[in-house]
Design brief:
Layout: H1 12-24, E1 28-29, H2 30-35, H3 44-57, E2 60-64, E3 72-76, H4 80-96, H5 100-110, H6 115-127
Antiparallel strand pairs: 1-3, 2-3
Length: 131
């Protein structure tokens, strides 16, 4: 039995588009989004389809151009930090039973952190103000 795909998680291709929008910091047309890709650029119809999907998922909004310009200009409805927080919370819940300690332990073991990395992480934790 196939698991229903979570409509709220971005695919790799959707993430590429969101990164373009987040990096731009302003609304972009489909043509401008395409121009940010390396050669060979994806087809207009491909990006237009992804923009429709991202709009339906609630990650992207759009406005029409001014003075009768029918071009759609797309902009993110969520910041990169907001998406990262949401995604990492899903990872923490799905794979680590909601435990931050288990998540951190996993990455500490898998990444084979150096002593300096661990000291840097401890410094970050110690400098974080309590909520």
């Amino acid at each position: 039995m196939r698991r229903k795909k979570d409509d709220h998680t971005l695919t790799k291709a959707e993430m590429e588009i969101m990164n373009i929008l987040w990096d731009a910091g302003k609304a972009l047309s489909t043509h401008t989004i395409i121009s940010h890709y390396p050669e060979p650029h994806p087809a207009y119809s491909t990006i237009a389809t992804f923009m429709k999907i991202l709009t339906m998922k609630g990650y992207v909004g759009f406005r029409k151009g001014e003075d009768g310009d029918k071009t759609h200009y797309f902009y993110p409805l969520m910041t990169r930090v907001e998406y990262t927080r949401k995604y990492m919370n899903e990872v923490k819940t799905t794979f680590f039973g909601g435990s931050v300690k288990s998540l951190i332990s996993f990455f500490a073991q898998e990444e084979k952190l150096s002593e300096q990395d661990l000291q840097d992480i401890f410094a970050l934790i110690n400098d974080t103000p309590e909520p």
